[in-house]
Structures are given as structure tokens and as C-alpha cells.
């Protein structure tokens, strides 16, 4: 995501030009990644849902940091948004598995 925003660029916002590896060490990203995003109670419960949950957090952090340079600490806000979406993600994953199994056994 960061590499894509590097290509788009902006003359008025220097945050568009930050390399992807800088986002891993700026602010509370490491703390949020290790301790907050892996918390099992409010995160997704399915394995596929956990991957989607992590991608939602990563993309949201980059977007918050780059689009709004006044708020570089976007990790906790991104985790909050992903926690709101976690039940929806799990529901969609479970429903897709049910649909796949129905198609498999109805043949």
C-alpha cells in the first residue's frame, strides 16, 4: 500500500514518499502489531478471518498516516476499526465455507 502511495505522490504532503519499511518503525506500530492486534478476544476467530483482519489493520494504518499527516499514530484507530469489522469478517468467511461445502456435497 505504501509503495502504491509512493507512486501517486503529493507535493504538499511528504508522508506520501515514506518507504514501506519506515511505517514499521514509526510511532506505535510495533507495539500495536505485537500486543494489541493479536489480542484474541476482539479479533477474528477464523484463520482466514485473521489474515483479512491483519490486512485491514495494515492498510488502514498506512491510509491514516499518509492521508492525514496530523495523525501519525493511526495504529490504535486502525485496530479499533478492524475490531468493529471482525464479526462481519468472520460471518463472511463462515458463510463462504458453508456455500463451498454445499456446492461440494450437492454434486
List the helices and strands and how they pair.
Layout: H1 2-8, H2 20-23, H3 29-36, H4 47-67, H5 75-105
Helix pairs in contact: 4-5
List the main descriptive attributes of the protein structure presented here.
66% helix; mainly alpha; single chain; 107 residues
Q: Spans with pLDDT under 50 lasting ≥5 residues?
A: none
Which shape, going by the Cα principal axes? elongated
The amount of beta strand, in percent, is under 5%
Order of helices and strands: HHHHH
Mean pLDDT reading: 81
The structural domain count equals 1
Work out the radius of gyration. 17 Å
Helix/sheet category: mainly alpha
Largest sheet: none
| Structure summary, number of beta strands | 0
